[in-house]
Amino acid sequence: MADFRLRAVPLLSRVGADRSDELRTDIDAAVAGWTDAAVLWVDGRGQALVAGNTVVLSSTGGLGDTPPAEAVFVGRLPDGRHAWALRGPLPDPGDAAARVVDLRRGGVDLDDLSAQLLVTATALLNWHDNARFSPIDGTPTRVVRAGWARADPVTGREEFPRIDPAIIALVHDGADRIVLARQHGWPERMYSLLAGFVEAGESFETCVVREIREEIGIDVTDVRYLGSQPWPFPRSLMVGFHALGDPAQAFAYLDGEIAEARWFSRAQVCAALAAGDWTTPGSTAEYLLPGAVSIAREIIESWAYAEQG
Protein backbone atom coordinates (compact mmCIF):
# COMPACT_ATOMS: atom_id res chain seq x y z
CA MET A 1 0.00 0.00 0.00
CA ALA A 2 2.23 2.81 -1.29
CA ASP A 3 -0.52 5.43 -1.14
CA PHE A 4 -3.91 6.08 0.42
CA ARG A 5 -6.17 9.03 1.28
CA LEU A 6 -8.09 10.04 4.36
CA ARG A 7 -11.54 8.50 4.27
CA ALA A 8 -13.19 11.47 5.99
CA VAL A 9 -12.47 15.01 7.18
CA PRO A 10 -10.83 14.86 10.64
CA LEU A 11 -13.47 15.62 13.25
CA LEU A 12 -12.00 18.89 14.50
CA SER A 13 -11.52 20.17 10.93
CA ARG A 14 -15.23 20.22 10.15
CA VAL A 15 -16.91 23.40 8.93
CA GLY A 16 -20.43 24.46 9.89
CA ALA A 17 -20.29 28.24 10.27
CA ASP A 18 -19.16 31.14 8.12
CA ARG A 19 -16.00 32.59 9.69
CA SER A 20 -17.02 36.02 8.35
CA ASP A 21 -13.56 37.49 8.77
CA GLU A 22 -14.79 40.84 7.40
CA LEU A 23 -16.60 41.44 10.70
CA ARG A 24 -13.28 41.43 12.54
CA THR A 25 -12.46 44.84 11.09
CA ASP A 26 -15.98 46.18 10.47
CA ILE A 27 -16.59 47.02 14.09
CA ASP A 28 -19.87 48.83 13.43
CA ALA A 29 -21.33 45.71 11.77
CA ALA A 30 -20.07 43.47 14.56
CA VAL A 31 -21.59 45.68 17.24
CA ALA A 32 -24.86 45.99 15.31
CA GLY A 33 -25.28 42.22 15.44
CA TRP A 34 -24.47 41.92 19.15
CA THR A 35 -28.02 42.28 20.48
CA ASP A 36 -29.23 39.16 18.69
CA ALA A 37 -25.93 37.30 18.87
CA ALA A 38 -25.31 33.87 20.41
CA VAL A 39 -22.65 33.38 23.09
CA LEU A 40 -20.61 30.24 23.66
CA TRP A 41 -19.23 30.08 27.19
CA VAL A 42 -16.00 28.11 27.72
CA ASP A 43 -14.74 27.62 31.26
CA GLY A 44 -11.15 27.62 32.49
CA ARG A 45 -10.81 23.90 31.80
CA GLY A 46 -11.85 24.25 28.18
CA GLN A 47 -15.31 22.83 28.81
CA ALA A 48 -18.65 23.89 27.35
CA LEU A 49 -22.27 22.91 27.75
CA VAL A 50 -23.64 20.48 25.16
CA ALA A 51 -27.21 19.25 24.63
CA GLY A 52 -27.43 16.27 22.34
CA ASN A 53 -24.75 16.93 19.73
CA THR A 54 -25.01 20.72 19.85
CA VAL A 55 -23.19 23.27 21.98
CA VAL A 56 -25.47 25.37 24.16
CA LEU A 57 -25.48 28.98 22.99
CA SER A 58 -26.67 31.71 25.36
CA SER A 59 -28.15 35.12 24.67
CA THR A 60 -26.27 38.36 25.17
CA GLY A 61 -28.74 39.48 27.82
CA GLY A 62 -26.99 41.05 30.80
CA LEU A 63 -23.70 41.48 28.94
CA GLY A 64 -24.23 45.06 27.81
CA ASP A 65 -25.05 46.77 24.55
CA THR A 66 -21.70 45.95 22.95
CA PRO A 67 -19.43 42.90 23.08
CA PRO A 68 -17.30 42.79 26.25
CA ALA A 69 -13.64 43.62 25.64
CA GLU A 70 -12.61 40.00 26.15
CA ALA A 71 -15.23 38.51 23.77
CA VAL A 72 -14.00 36.77 20.61
CA PHE A 73 -15.99 36.52 17.39
CA VAL A 74 -16.17 32.90 16.21
CA GLY A 75 -18.41 33.12 13.13
CA ARG A 76 -21.83 33.64 11.67
CA LEU A 77 -24.46 30.96 12.26
CA PRO A 78 -26.53 29.50 9.40
CA ASP A 79 -29.49 31.63 10.55
CA GLY A 80 -27.38 34.79 10.18
CA ARG A 81 -26.76 35.48 13.85
CA HIS A 82 -23.27 36.35 15.02
CA ALA A 83 -21.56 33.94 17.40
CA TRP A 84 -19.13 35.06 20.09
CA ALA A 85 -17.22 33.18 22.77
CA LEU A 86 -16.33 34.17 26.31
CA ARG A 87 -14.21 32.61 29.02
CA GLY A 88 -16.04 32.17 32.29
CA PRO A 89 -18.22 29.92 34.44
CA LEU A 90 -20.74 27.93 32.44
CA PRO A 91 -24.29 29.27 32.65
CA ASP A 92 -27.28 27.42 34.02
CA PRO A 93 -28.13 25.09 31.10
CA GLY A 94 -31.89 25.25 31.64
CA ASP A 95 -32.00 21.77 30.17
CA ALA A 96 -31.72 18.60 32.22
CA ALA A 97 -30.19 16.83 29.22
CA ALA A 98 -27.27 19.26 28.93
CA ARG A 99 -23.85 18.02 29.95
CA VAL A 100 -20.39 19.50 30.36
CA VAL A 101 -17.83 18.32 27.78
CA ASP A 102 -14.47 19.27 26.35
CA LEU A 103 -13.14 18.73 22.84
CA ARG A 104 -10.86 15.84 23.72
CA ARG A 105 -13.63 13.70 25.19
CA GLY A 106 -16.79 15.10 23.66
CA GLY A 107 -15.68 16.44 20.30
CA VAL A 108 -16.54 13.22 18.51
CA ASP A 109 -20.23 13.64 19.34
CA LEU A 110 -20.60 17.23 18.14
CA ASP A 111 -22.26 18.27 14.90
CA ASP A 112 -20.17 20.18 12.35
CA LEU A 113 -21.32 23.63 13.48
CA SER A 114 -20.68 22.94 17.15
CA ALA A 115 -17.29 21.38 16.49
CA GLN A 116 -16.14 24.42 14.52
CA LEU A 117 -17.42 26.91 17.08
CA LEU A 118 -15.86 25.12 20.04
CA VAL A 119 -12.49 24.44 18.43
CA THR A 120 -12.23 28.07 17.28
CA ALA A 121 -13.29 29.41 20.66
CA THR A 122 -10.88 27.12 22.49
CA ALA A 123 -7.96 28.11 20.29
CA LEU A 124 -8.61 31.85 20.54
CA LEU A 125 -9.35 31.91 24.26
CA ASN A 126 -6.25 29.81 25.04
CA TRP A 127 -4.14 32.30 23.10
CA HIS A 128 -5.61 35.32 24.89
CA ASP A 129 -4.98 33.68 28.26
CA ASN A 130 -1.25 33.67 27.50
CA ALA A 131 -0.79 36.76 25.33
CA ARG A 132 -1.84 39.63 27.54
CA PHE A 133 1.51 41.41 27.36
CA SER A 134 3.59 42.61 24.45
CA PRO A 135 6.40 40.20 23.58
CA ILE A 136 8.50 43.26 22.69
CA ASP A 137 8.45 45.31 25.90
CA GLY A 138 5.94 43.71 28.24
CA THR A 139 3.30 46.41 27.80
CA PRO A 140 -0.24 45.18 28.60
CA THR A 141 -2.09 44.72 25.30
CA ARG A 142 -5.77 45.08 24.46
CA VAL A 143 -8.07 42.94 22.38
CA VAL A 144 -8.75 44.20 18.84
CA ARG A 145 -10.20 42.81 15.61
CA ALA A 146 -13.11 41.18 17.47
CA GLY A 147 -10.73 38.96 19.40
CA TRP A 148 -8.45 38.00 16.50
CA ALA A 149 -5.54 40.21 17.54
CA ARG A 150 -4.07 42.11 20.48
CA ALA A 151 -2.57 45.57 20.15
CA ASP A 152 -0.04 47.62 22.08
CA PRO A 153 -2.02 50.72 23.11
CA VAL A 154 1.04 52.95 22.74
CA THR A 155 2.70 51.79 19.52
CA GLY A 156 -0.33 50.17 17.87
CA ARG A 157 1.72 47.05 17.10
CA GLU A 158 -0.58 44.05 16.65
CA GLU A 159 0.02 40.45 17.62
CA PHE A 160 -2.03 37.65 16.10
CA PRO A 161 -2.96 34.21 17.46
CA ARG A 162 0.04 31.94 17.52
CA ILE A 163 -0.23 28.44 16.09
CA ASP A 164 2.43 25.80 16.65
CA PRO A 165 2.57 23.47 13.60
CA ALA A 166 3.32 19.83 14.26
CA ILE A 167 3.53 16.78 12.04
CA ILE A 168 1.93 13.43 12.74
CA ALA A 169 3.00 10.54 10.54
CA LEU A 170 2.06 6.97 9.81
CA VAL A 171 5.14 4.94 8.88
CA HIS A 172 4.34 1.90 6.72
CA ASP A 173 6.31 -0.75 4.84
CA GLY A 174 4.50 -0.22 1.54
CA ALA A 175 2.36 -3.29 2.18
CA ASP A 176 0.58 -4.50 5.30
CA ARG A 177 2.50 -3.21 8.30
CA ILE A 178 2.75 0.11 10.12
CA VAL A 179 4.72 1.45 13.07
CA LEU A 180 2.87 2.36 16.26
CA ALA A 181 4.67 3.72 19.29
CA ARG A 182 4.16 4.32 22.98
CA GLN A 183 5.48 7.29 24.93
CA HIS A 184 6.92 7.08 28.41
CA GLY A 185 4.11 7.39 30.93
CA TRP A 186 1.50 5.80 28.69
CA PRO A 187 -0.11 2.50 29.69
CA GLU A 188 1.63 -0.49 28.11
CA ARG A 189 -1.27 -1.23 25.74
CA MET A 190 -1.62 2.33 24.41
CA TYR A 191 -0.08 3.08 21.00
CA SER A 192 -0.30 5.88 18.47
CA LEU A 193 1.48 7.49 15.54
CA LEU A 194 4.71 9.46 15.72
CA ALA A 195 4.46 13.23 16.00
CA GLY A 196 6.57 16.28 16.66
CA PHE A 197 6.77 20.05 16.31
CA VAL A 198 8.13 21.74 13.21
CA GLU A 199 11.36 23.60 13.83
CA ALA A 200 12.34 27.04 12.55
CA GLY A 201 13.55 26.95 8.96
CA GLU A 202 12.11 23.49 8.38
CA SER A 203 9.48 22.21 5.94
CA PHE A 204 6.77 19.80 6.99
CA GLU A 205 8.31 16.99 4.93
CA THR A 206 11.76 17.55 6.39
CA CYS A 207 10.23 17.54 9.85
CA VAL A 208 8.65 14.13 9.20
CA VAL A 209 12.02 12.65 8.27
CA ARG A 210 13.83 14.26 11.21
CA GLU A 211 11.23 13.46 13.88
CA ILE A 212 10.94 9.82 12.91
CA ARG A 213 14.71 9.49 12.86
CA GLU A 214 15.01 11.14 16.28
CA GLU A 215 12.17 9.21 17.89
CA ILE A 216 12.64 5.67 16.59
CA GLY A 217 15.93 5.75 14.69
CA ILE A 218 14.72 4.72 11.24
CA ASP A 219 14.99 6.53 7.93
CA VAL A 220 11.83 7.17 5.91
CA THR A 221 11.23 8.16 2.30
CA ASP A 222 8.28 8.93 0.03
CA VAL A 223 6.71 11.40 2.48
CA ARG A 224 3.14 12.23 1.41
CA TYR A 225 0.59 14.68 2.79
CA LEU A 226 -2.79 13.41 4.05
CA GLY A 227 -4.64 16.24 5.80
CA SER A 228 -4.62 18.51 8.84
CA GLN A 229 -6.53 19.23 12.01
CA PRO A 230 -6.49 22.03 14.59
CA TRP A 231 -5.48 20.76 18.01
CA PRO A 232 -5.91 23.70 20.39
CA PHE A 233 -4.27 22.10 23.43
CA PRO A 234 -3.11 24.74 23.74
CA ARG A 235 -2.42 25.96 20.15
CA SER A 236 -1.24 23.24 17.78
CA LEU A 237 -2.07 22.44 14.17
CA MET A 238 -1.54 18.75 13.41
CA VAL A 239 -0.46 18.12 9.82
CA GLY A 240 -0.77 14.47 8.79
CA PHE A 241 1.55 12.48 6.53
CA HIS A 242 2.49 8.94 5.69
CA ALA A 243 5.99 7.74 4.84
CA LEU A 244 7.79 4.57 3.80
CA GLY A 245 10.06 2.79 6.27
CA ASP A 246 12.12 -0.41 6.23
CA PRO A 247 11.16 -3.06 8.82
CA ALA A 248 14.69 -4.45 8.60
CA GLN A 249 16.09 -1.28 10.17
CA ALA A 250 16.39 -1.57 13.94
CA PHE A 251 14.60 0.84 16.22
CA ALA A 252 16.72 3.29 18.20
CA TYR A 253 15.08 5.69 20.64
CA LEU A 254 17.47 8.57 20.13
CA ASP A 255 15.64 11.47 21.81
CA GLY A 256 14.23 9.52 24.75
CA GLU A 257 10.57 10.39 24.07
CA ILE A 258 9.46 6.94 22.95
CA ALA A 259 9.37 3.98 25.31
CA GLU A 260 8.57 1.36 22.67
CA ALA A 261 7.78 1.09 18.97
CA ARG A 262 6.57 -1.95 17.05
CA TRP A 263 5.53 -2.97 13.58
CA PHE A 264 1.86 -4.00 13.55
CA SER A 265 0.11 -5.98 10.83
CA ARG A 266 -3.08 -4.78 9.17
CA ALA A 267 -4.97 -7.59 10.90
CA GLN A 268 -3.70 -6.47 14.32
CA VAL A 269 -4.62 -2.86 13.61
CA CYS A 270 -8.10 -3.74 12.40
CA ALA A 271 -8.70 -5.85 15.50
CA ALA A 272 -7.62 -2.97 17.75
CA LEU A 273 -9.85 -0.52 15.86
CA ALA A 274 -12.83 -2.84 16.21
CA ALA A 275 -12.27 -3.01 19.98
CA GLY A 276 -12.84 0.73 20.39
CA ASP A 277 -10.17 3.18 21.50
CA TRP A 278 -8.26 4.27 24.55
CA THR A 279 -11.29 6.20 25.83
CA THR A 280 -13.43 3.04 25.92
CA PRO A 281 -14.16 2.28 29.61
CA GLY A 282 -12.93 -1.10 30.81
CA SER A 283 -11.53 -2.13 27.44
CA THR A 284 -9.64 -5.41 27.53
CA ALA A 285 -8.32 -5.07 23.97
CA GLU A 286 -4.77 -6.27 23.42
CA TYR A 287 -3.84 -2.84 22.01
CA LEU A 288 -5.46 0.56 22.56
CA LEU A 289 -5.46 3.13 19.74
CA PRO A 290 -6.28 6.88 19.75
CA GLY A 291 -9.80 8.21 20.16
CA ALA A 292 -11.93 9.22 17.19
CA VAL A 293 -11.57 12.97 17.82
CA SER A 294 -7.89 12.88 16.82
CA ILE A 295 -6.44 12.95 13.33
CA ALA A 296 -4.27 10.01 14.41
CA ARG A 297 -7.37 7.80 14.50
CA GLU A 298 -8.53 8.98 11.08
CA ILE A 299 -5.13 8.29 9.54
CA ILE A 300 -4.90 4.82 11.07
CA GLU A 301 -8.43 3.90 9.99
CA SER A 302 -7.83 5.24 6.49
CA TRP A 303 -4.75 3.06 6.08
CA ALA A 304 -6.31 -0.01 7.71
CA TYR A 305 -9.48 0.01 5.60
CA ALA A 306 -8.02 1.39 2.35
CA GLU A 307 -8.18 -1.94 0.54
CA GLN A 308 -11.75 -2.49 1.66
CA GLY A 309 -12.98 0.54 -0.36
TrEMBL record:
EC number of the protein: 3.6.1.22
Pfam name, any one: NUDIX
Cofactor: Zn(2+); Mg(2+)
Single GO MF descriptor: metal ion binding
Domain of life: Bacteria
GO biological process assignments: NAD+ catabolic process; NADP+ catabolic process
Protein name as annotated: NAD(+) diphosphatase
